[in-house]
């Protein structure tokens, strides 16, 4: 007759223990690189190498007209650049200080579909950056998007904490590693695109733009874009580029 009561007590104890463990394991420490009022706009150069900003260009924005974007992204910047030959590259950079399970960067394959595009190809590509002082490989994603007569090849990568995960499982693993130490990682999305039906040439242009842009950044800004890709990169003490 007393067994059911004992079972109730054990069940209650397990529930309390589980709640305590969940509270203890819930990460609470934010680890943003961008802080103290630092802005992406302060870091991005208007002109570098053969590239110059074209103020007339407006790129596809993430989660356009969605109030959720305000919660996910602390900062979002879009720019168009042209090189000496007149080639146009559009770049979007979105930053989120909180990469928890409820707030995380939305991949471009989601936002392009939401904006009426079809995706006809989607695959991983590791890009050799060879940024001066750093010989690193950047895991990125290529995809071909089409909306009516607009053909837009896209290259993008996402940084979560120190890493550049490509698959959803990789991203979840990075967040778990941070969470086990009580921390919440920040994240950055870099998306590069062009208007072209020639995918191969477009992707070559994307790679050149990425190399030129990263090479033009101050060394202490690289962790914001490519994470801890090498021992030389120091995530501490990031400052805006000098004007």
How do the helices and strands line up, and which of them pair or pack?
Blueprint: H1 3-25, E1 29-31, H2 40-43, E2 47-48, E3 51-53, H3 68-72, E4 75-82, E5 88-96, H4 108-114, E6 118-128, E7 137-147, E8 150-160, H5 168-180, E9 183-185, E10 187-193, H6 199-216, H7 222-226
Parallel strand pairs: 1-9
Antiparallel strand pairs: 2-3, 3-4, 4-5, 5-10, 6-7, 7-8, 8-10
Describe the protein.
- By secondary structure, the chain is an alpha+beta fold.
- The chain contains seven helices and ten strands.
- The protein has helices at 3-25, 40-43, 68-72, 108-114, 168-180, 199-216, 222-226; strands at 29-31, 47-48, 51-53, 75-82, 88-96, 118-128, 137-147, 150-160, 183-185, 187-193.
- The strands form two sheets. It has an eight-stranded antiparallel β-sheet with strand order 2-3-4-5-10-8-7-6. The protein has a two-stranded parallel ribbon with strand order 1-9.
- The chain starts with a helix and ends in a 17-residue tail after the last helix.
Outline the low-pLDDT stretches: 18-24, 63-68, 230-243
Distance between the termini: 80 Å
Strand order of the largest sheet: 2-3-4-5-10-8-7-6
Proportion in β-strands: 25-35%
How many DSSP E strands?
Answer: 10
Main sheet summary: 8 strands, antiparallel
Q: Helix count, per DSSP?
A: 7
Percent of residues in helices? 25-40%
Coarse shape? globular
Order of helices and strands: HEHEEHEEHEEEHEEHH
